[in-house]
Design a protein that fits this description.
The protein has helices at 17-29, 41-50, 68-76, 108-125; strands at residues 9-13, 33-38, 55-58, 61-62, 65-66, 81-85, 101-103. By secondary structure, it is of the alpha/beta class. Helix 2 (41-50) runs parallel beside helix 3 (68-76).
Length: 131
């Protein structure tokens, strides 16, 4: 069965207003609930601390501030992330190379597939509780 975003709570971290709103609206059409969008590291960290999140879409560069503290906080909580960036993979900080990334301009269908796939992989990796 194909993985979907239906019922998933997704954090959107993007500093370009029009793109942030466009991403949020698109994710909602896919059945996701959107936290944010937010355009700052501080605002994103506040949501990471207070929201139950299933996944996140992160722009790497937020007005010349790197999003990596947000990525670290999400990964520590086992929340899957997808970077949405104009950066080539090799320009990402070394710790984040290999994580899902969608190149800007964003192909929304590819983003939804990458995000749903990352969430599905994380769910499959969680240990199941014994009865």
């Amino acid at each position: 069965m194909a993985e979907t975003l239906v019922g998933k709570r997704i954090l959107v971290v993007e500093d370009e207003y029009m793109l942030a709103n466009d991403l949020a609206e698109f994710l909602e059409t896919q059945g996701a609930a959107v936290a944010g969008p937010v355009g700052t590291v501080k605002g994103a960290l506040a949501l990471v601390e207070t929201e139950a999140l299933d996944g996140a879409v992160l722009d790497v560069n937020l007005r010349n501030e790197q999003v990596y503290p947000v990525a670290d906080a999400l990964l520590a909580r086992k929340v899957p992330i997808v970077f949405a960036t104009g950066y080539e993979e090799l320009l990402l900080a070394r710790a984040y190379i290999g994580l899902p990334r969608c190149q800007k301009p964003i192909d929304k269908a590819a983003l939804a597939t990458a995000l749903a796939g990352a969430i599905g992989r994380q769910a499959r990796e969680r240990p199941t509780r014994a009865p």
